[in-house]
Design a protein that fits this description.
Elements lengths: L8 H4 L12 E5 L3 E7 L4 E8 L3 H5 L8 E3 L6
Antiparallel strand pairs: 1-2, 2-3, 3-4
């Protein structure tokens, strides 16, 4: 990686070692639509990414990233 900057390297790489842990969960909805969801509450979440082999699922606005969905939590 080449970085062309006038900023000191200490500022550029200041928070590089700190990674934010997100609690993203993989869930399956309805007819086998799998997605990555970031929980907002115990039964609601925001869609982060859709994982589906069916191209029609990507055209469904209900499954668009950023949409809020309701789901049943799984207890392990």
């Amino acid at each position: 990686m080449i970085m062309y900057t006038t900023m000191p390297l200490e500022l550029v790489f200041e928070n590089m070692d700190q990674t934010e842990k997100q609690s993203i969960r993989e869930i399956s909805m309805g007819a086998g639509v799998t997605m990555l969801v970031e929980p907002i509450s115990s039964s609601e979440g925001k869609i982060v990414r859709l994982i589906s082999p069916n191209p029609q699922d990507y055209l469904n606005p209900r499954y668009a990233p950023g949409q809020t969905i309701s789901f049943q939590p799984e207890f392990n």
